[in-house]
Design a protein that fits this description.
Layout (H helix, E strand, L loop, with lengths): L2 H17 L4 H25 L5 H19 L3 H28 L2 H22 L1
Length: 128
């Protein structure tokens, strides 16, 4: 097993360990943390990697997947307006990620990070 495969296995196991709890609140918090990390990685890669880059592709894919998980986890019946507002914020960030990736413009990614940071801060306060 080469270094790349070992690293991939470690990352996969690490993420699984973080979310292998029966606590939906903790799972969403970890998804938010991973989303921010991948958005920052994507923005960095857009500025510093060649046009075709595995790093860019993986960060993009992981970011979009995280947004999908977050949007899918919303309960519109119980959450009402808050769930709708979160869905719209996630959609704004998804558009920023997709447009930034398509246009190779890191600013669009960086502009989408603060709303996710705010959601994560609020999420952390709820758990305390």
């Amino acid at each position: 097993m080469n270094y790349s495969q070992s690293m991939r296995k470690y990352v996969d196991v690490d993420i699984q360990a973080k979310v292998a709890v029966d606590n939906p609140h903790k799972i969403i918090q970890e998804v938010l943390i991973e989303l921010i990390k991948n958005m920052k990685t994507l923005a960095y890669a857009l500025d510093n990697e060649p046009v075709r880059s595995d790093l860019k592709s993986k960060a993009f894919s992981k970011s979009i997947t995280a947004i999908y998980i977050l949007q899918s986890s919303l309960d519109f019946e119980k959450g009402g307006e808050i769930a709708s507002n979160l869905f719209n914020l996630y959609d704004y960030c998804k558009r920023g990620i997709m447009n930034g990736f398509t246009k190779q413009d890191s600013k669009l990614i960086y502009d989408a990070i603060p709303p996710i940071d705010e959601i994560l801060d609020g999420w952390r306060q709820i758990s305390n």
